[in-house]
Design brief:
Length: 418
Amino acid sequence: MSKILKIRARQVFDSRGNPTIEAEVYSKNLSASAICPSGASTGTYEAFEKRDSNNKKYLGKSVLGAVNLVNTKISKKLTGANIHDQTRIDTILINLDGTRQKTSLGANTILAVSMATKKLSAKIKSIPLYKTFLVKNNYRLPYPLMNIINGGAHANNGLRIQEFMIRPDKAKSFSEAMRICFVVINNLRKLIAKKGLSTSVGDEGGFAPMISSNEKALDLVVAAINKSGFKNGKDISICLDVAANELIKKDKYSIHSKKFVSVDQSIKEYKKIINKYKIKSIEDPFGENDWIAWSKLMKNTNNVQIVGDDLYVTNLERLKKGFLNNSSNSILIKLNQIGTVSETLEVIKFAQIIGYKTIISHRSGDSEDTFIADLAVGTNSNQIKTGSLARSERVAKYNQLLRIEEDLGKKASMSKID
């Protein structure tokens, strides 16, 4: 049995330049580390992120208290634990915290340790990380939901919708999927520049041109797809992350313009752009507590992936409620929304049992850590969101998936979208 000898944490920085926590778990001869990401557009029901709100030196954003908890309380509690018993280690961490949303230790504190332990277990066994999750053979590569235009909380450009993405549905390999996205992105850059707009990027690497109309952004995406020699809705699908929590006021929404309108009117507008732009996926179309609106949209759309992110926050109880309410047909998976690897895997397993598509996701404040790339393959999640082909913290995940594809060799295949 390989035992944990000690755990050490340190404060590092994420892709937005904010402090975050890295934990390193040690065995007799090896160690492994993991960095916890952080979100900007966050749901109310997410597990708690512990920061030093009173530390003015870091403007209240440091995680030195979380680091200290790992180096003292958590390290002492887990010393001697079996590194390969992930469920027990995560249970110890959950019980040590003792709160519903991990407000005592912080989900960021706990997750960094949980992920690092999982990595160390794979390292000791001398097997790739992706082979240590739910799937034991017939591994499949996920389709990238490639973020190409940023809006909402991820950019300062006036766009209501937070992410405009493409999914290369006809790609036969992950390498081909990346080539397709690369070509579209480069043609999109030319189209944006031709209009005299900036080709600078937002938090997740997508372009952030100063346009305020969703339809103008969608027109640009369609033009880039066409210019690249592909067919929208066939070779490539347009996918959206609305992040409607940011666009709600007293049961009304300002999704399609700055004007707040009813749920029914919002659904009519959704149906218009779905038909016009052949949109195949919409994430967080309504607020995290507006269960009736979600159900209405499901009843009024066909062959569209309706994805719950803020609605579910990778929480099993909320997912069960959504299933009974017919709120969606897909779920976004973010490790730091729940706080441990084991709880994340429970949610993925249940979601797949009930027929939901599972989409593994990064956060807007991310790092060079590639854990989610292995998680996507190791759970046969058919899609992954990890930003655009820009910014190394986003590209790192794509590069890891290319390595996994190479490792699988002839056994490598893509997941099923339909």
